[in-house]
Amino acid sequence: MNDLNEAVDALLSRPVDVLPSPEVRARLRKASGLTQEEVAQAFGVHRMAFLRWENGQSMPRRRHRDAYLRLLRGWADKHPEAALGSDLAKAG
């Protein structure tokens, strides 16, 4: 039973990596002055794959999701007005 509790504790301690809404994702990218193509190239994926990430039709795999979430958080820091309504927005 102790192993099971440790496994549950490990799951609970994982950071939340929920992406913001598709509207916020697009606002953050646009506020940064980047196209979907530019972001897709940086991630090494086709523009259509990135489009599906941005509009919520699909989720990036773990490696890309972690990097995409990092990018979104960075954009939210630079453009807090675009992050309004998301959990990426910093509390004032």
Automatic annotation (TrEMBL):
Keyword Transmembrane: no
GO molecular function: DNA binding
Gene3D superfamilies noted in UniProt: lambda repressor-like DNA-binding domains
SUPFAM superfamilies: lambda repressor-like DNA-binding domains (SSF47413)
Residue ranges occupied by any HTH cro/C1-type domain in the UniProt entry: 27-60
Keywords: DNA-binding, Transcription, Transcription regulation
InterPro entries documented for this protein: Cro/C1-type_HTH, HTH-type_reg/antitoxin, Lambda_DNA-bd_dom_sf, MqsA/HigA-2
Signal peptide, first to last residue: none
Superkingdom of the organism of origin: Bacteria
Name of the protein described by the UniProt record: HTH-type transcriptional regulator/antitoxin MqsA
